[in-house]
Amino acid sequence: MKVVVRARGSWRKVTFKVPDEVWERIKEVCKKHGFRVDEALRIILLDGYIDGQTPSDNEIERIKKRIDELERELYELEGKWSPLRFKMYYSALDNQNLAIQLSGMIAENKRLRKMLGLPQRDFSKAEELIKYYMSSAFGEPEK
Hints:
This protein is mainly α. It contains 4 helices and 2 strands; from the N terminus they run E-E-H-H-H-H.
């Protein structure tokens, strides 16, 4: 069972995976003692009641250190990801600009061929690329 906990007035959320047998046990205890399941989950998550055990001070310190390490790693990854995302955005803009220019050149080529009486060429592959870069360059996939 997947449990999603959201903070009040915030967009943050935490997802927990609860094994099915534990979930069934929680439901049984709730039914036996007259609690709602969400109330029981709140008690378990906020007060740390799991089989009557509370975490030791050493365990809490170990968890805090691990959280700090993970936050540090997250910031390092974000530092590496931000420039890549920035470059990708401007590459997508460049691709879109080139697609617009190519579209204009294809239209001009078709018009000149028609005026000169030359046979028309097949630009379908280029037009597919133009559609791709115009519609999905910024995360809007073509349907």
